[in-house]
Structures are given as C-alpha cells and as structure tokens.
C-alpha cells in the first residue's frame, strides 16, 4: 500500500557552484516519480533544496541559474565580519522562496547552519526560509554572519556538510545523499583571498566527510571535481553532471523507495 512505503529524505550537501548539480539530481528524481518526503540542506544544498521546497519549478530554476550573473548580488564591503554584506543575496532569496516560512515548505525542509558561539550544528526549521538559507551559505570570512538571538550563524558545511543525520532526524527511512565537494582529482585554483578561504574550507570538509560513517543509503557524487567553487558561469554543465549521476543510481534508488 502507498502509505506503507519508506519515507524518503534527500540530503543535499555543500559545494558552492558545484552544488548546482543538486538541480539536475532533483530533476531526475521527479522524472522517475521518486517520492521526496524530507529535504535537509547545507550551504548550497540549502539554497537549492529550500527554493525547490518553496514551490519553484526546478527546470526554471536551472535556466535562471544559468542566466544569472552572480556578481550582481555580491555587495562587497570593507571587511569587518565578511567581504560580502549579504543584503542583495537575501533579497534574491526572498524573491525565489516567495518569502515562505518552514511551515509552508513542501516537502518538509530543514536547513543546517553553524553557530560560532557554541561551535555546534544548528538545525533551522522555523521562521523565514530565506533567512535560514542566507545563514547556511555564509562562508566564514566571505559573507557577513547572520545573528539570531545569541547565535552567530555561518555556513552549514562547518559542522555538517552532508546533512544525512539531519534527514534521518526528520523521519526519513531512506536517505539519498548528494555529495558535490569530495570527488577525486579536484581542481584547485588560488587567485585571490576568496579562493584561499574556499580552498581551506574544502580541506576541512573533506576530512569531515572521510570520518563520517553514515553517508546515506544511496550516495550520489556528481563528477564536478574539475569545477572551482566560483564556477557559476558553468551552470549548465554542472546541472547536467548532476543529472548523469542521478540517472546512474536510479535503479538502486527505485529499489529502496518504491
């Protein structure tokens, strides 16, 4: 009976521009009628998953991402807490999420951020989805952190770059995890301060990934290692690699989820 099927959680990991592969993965899951009951997102995974859970067409999202000049939304400031103030990107997020709250999300949504004050992972499940995404993508030193009460929130990748545990805590029986940052043969290019910060974060999250025992029931790893974190101009290629990786795993996914 349909009500007896396993509840499916989608764990979308961090990866900056490489995280655009999540769009392709979701497209393939939809095309194959794979049910998605929960989405847990960290950093770019929070952005893609959060926008999708707010009712955005995943195909239009792919086209928009390919046409968007990300530099327009980088409001550079004299550094105090981060190079990018984040007001412009928050405005874009409010538009794309239709200013929805977590109670309006479908599928159910949880977003991972990291609290600098406690050093702990924070799972955001209430209030503004745009605000939560803005916190989860706040790469330390690049984006100004988001303050919520006593918390100072930064990138979810710092504490849980692949939010499998969060998806399970939501109630998922089966977790499809999408990793976009720890493939083999990664290309590293250091040309500016932002590249230094992103490369350092990549090293940290790779070590975190290697020590993680639970990498999901299905682990999808799009072959995006040759793309740099800031390769947003190559959106179409990255989305296609997400599609290819999902299609390569679709038989195993169907066995566990339908």
Model description:
- With 258 residues, the chain is an alpha/beta fold.
- Helices cover 40% and strands 17% of the residues.
- The chain has helices at residues 21-31, 44-53, 58-67, 87-96, 129-136, 157-160, 164-170, 193-211, 235-257, and strands at residues 8-12, 38-42, 82-84, 108-115, 121-124, 141-143, 146-148, 151-154, 174-178, 218-220.
- Strands 1, 2, 4, 5, 7, 8, 9 and 10 form an eight-stranded mixed beta sheet that branches. The protein has a two-stranded parallel sheet with strand order 3-6.
- The model is unreliable at 72-78 (pLDDT under 50).
Sheet/helix structural class? alpha/beta
Order of helices and strands: EHEHHEHEEHEEEHHEHEH
- Mean pLDDT, as a whole number? 87
What level of helicity do the residues show?
25-40%
Percent strand: 15-25%
Q: What is the total tally of β strands?
A: 10
Name the shape in a single word.
globular
- Largest sheet entry: 8 strands, mixed
